[in-house]
Write a structure and sequence with these properties.
The protein is an alpha/beta fold and 333 residues long. It has one domain: Rossmann fold (3-Layer(aba) Sandwich). The chain contains 11 helices and 10 strands. Strands 1-2-4-3-5-6-9-10 form an 8-stranded mixed β-sheet, sandwiched between helices. It is globular, with a radius of gyration of 19 Å.
């Protein structure tokens, strides 16, 4: 998701970031978040009949780099990172299906195989445009990390370098707990979740500040400007003037069936490129260097960032850039 626990009150946002532009916070205040910098171009592509959106930061002659967000997040969560990488890379950041400005899946089903297909489509279209297969660099967070690692295992020849921020899925302990549940219990639980979501009205916020307060309550590490940026790009305005999150509520219900644990590890073992696995010292997620998952990668380094939770790239952006910039440039294995 695009947040994690506790934070400052909405009133703490800097004044230059709190000036509405015409239609109640619509658009992108040029002075907010990263003063003086231009934003990306909004583009789209088709995947399994869904129109999917992505932000393209230009510099098309540079090597392609794709940033993949986590669950209930959106592509503009990468803006700070993308701006810093854009001078050296052709940076693209997709909105996963059911997220941001991408279409929702008609049946409300969001198996990870669909996300993998979408990323493979985006990579394929970039190669078609270039007239040849072009290796890409992939960076993914959480759900996006699971998507990029599995995609890299499917197409190892197409991935130059790989970064996963807490993107290996459940810890071995949690996996064992889930596997111990009888199949009928897991399936019935999923059916119950789907029914509850069908009966539940999406949460609405009377004002943008109300949505902002929710964002800040989710991640104590966010600065006021970060929280406002994530909120503004994460909500849409409803017909009655209220605000709601852009993501499909059915994203909250994870499908009851996934690839088998051994199959996922088999995909990790097929990855040939240098891989950086990043974890936060204050996160709920387990460290793959300690729980054994990193051992399934043939060329992986694990980096622990102290003072960061699950959203390392938001919580400690300078430390995060200090890790990935030399890694992406090839000066660090």
């Amino acid at each position: 998701m695009f947040a994690g626990p506790g934070a400052p009150a909405p009133g703490g946002a800097p004044e230059l970031c709190r000036q509405p532009l015409g239609n109640a916070w619509a658009g992108d205040p040029p002075s907010c978040y990263m003063p003086g910098m231009n934003g990306p171009t909004s583009l789209s592509f088709m995947s399994q009949r869904l129109r999917l959106h992505y932000a393209d930061w230009g510099n098309e002659d540079a090597p392609p780099l794709i940033l993949v967000h986590g669950g209930r997040d959106h592509c503009r969560a990468w803006d700070d990172i993308a701006r810093q990488l854009a001078p050296d890379w052709h940076v693209m950041a997709p909105d996963l299906r059911g997220h941001g400005d991408s279409q929702w899946a008609d049946a409300g089903g969001y198996a990870i195989t669909g996300f993998i297909y979408d990323l493979a489509q985006l990579i394929e279209q970039q190669s078609r445009q270039a007239g040849q297969a072009v290796p890409v660099t992939l960076v993914g967070h959480s759900l996006g990390g699971a998507v990029v690692t599995r995609t890299a295992g499917l197409y190892p020849e197409l991935v130059r370098r790989l970064v996963a921020i807490e993107g290996l899925g459940p810890s071995p302990t949690l996996e064992a707990e889930l596997a111990a549940k009888p199949v009928e219990q897991r399936l019935r639980g999923w059916v119950d979740e789907q029914r509850q979501l069908a009966a539940r009205a999406p949460r609405r916020y009377a004002t943008l500040d109300d949505a902002l307060a929710r964002m800040q309550a989710e991640n104590k590490h966010l600065s006021p400007a970060q929280a406002l940026h994530l909120t503004r790009h994460g909500v849409r305005r409803n017909e009655d003037g209220t605000f709601g999150w852009k993501f499909d509520p059915y994203i909250r219900s994870w499908p009851p069936a996934d690839l088998a644990r051994d199959e996922i590890r088999q995909l990790w073992g097929r990855i040939t490129c240098p891989t950086l696995l990043i974890y936060g010292g204050e996160s709920w997620a387990s460290n793959p260097a300690e729980d054994g998952r990193a051992a399934h990668f043939s060329n992986a380094t694990v980096a622990l960032v102290e003072g960061a939770g699950h959203w390392v790239h938001h919580d400690r952006p300078d430390a995060f850039m200090g890790l990935i910039r030399p890694f992406l440039n090839g000066s660090q294995a």
